[in-house]
Amino acid sequence: MKQGKIFIAVGIGGIVGATGRYGVSLLMTNWGIFPFATLTVNFLGCFLLSWLSNFNQKRIQSTLIIALNTGVIGSFTTFSTFTVETIELARTNIPLALLYVFISIFGGLLFCLLGFRTAYRRRVET
Hints:
By secondary structure, this protein is mostly helical. It has 5 helices and no strands. Helix 2 packs parallel to helix 5 (94-125). The protein is globular, with a radius of gyration of 16 Å. The model has no long low-confidence stretch (mean pLDDT 91).
């Protein structure tokens, strides 16, 4: 029975994350050729996943953690879109494609570090 609850929770989380992802892409549609929407959701996802992974999880039910991490954040962020957009950029502008890869990788690491430190600071304070 518990596995069924987890599947349902992940599915609901997936709906939330996917619609959030689509909403961000609608908000940032006319920002030029650089894929700011994907960069934004991936940075937010890096921060949130790192923060949730290091947050004091004793207060949160494990089903909710799985639903948030796998469902919401997993469907909100997108590696496949990042790779397709990189190839599309490289067809017309190789330096911009390389910049996108560089910003995505190092920005993602930075946002993960910020999420980790924010969660750690909060854990130490409580």
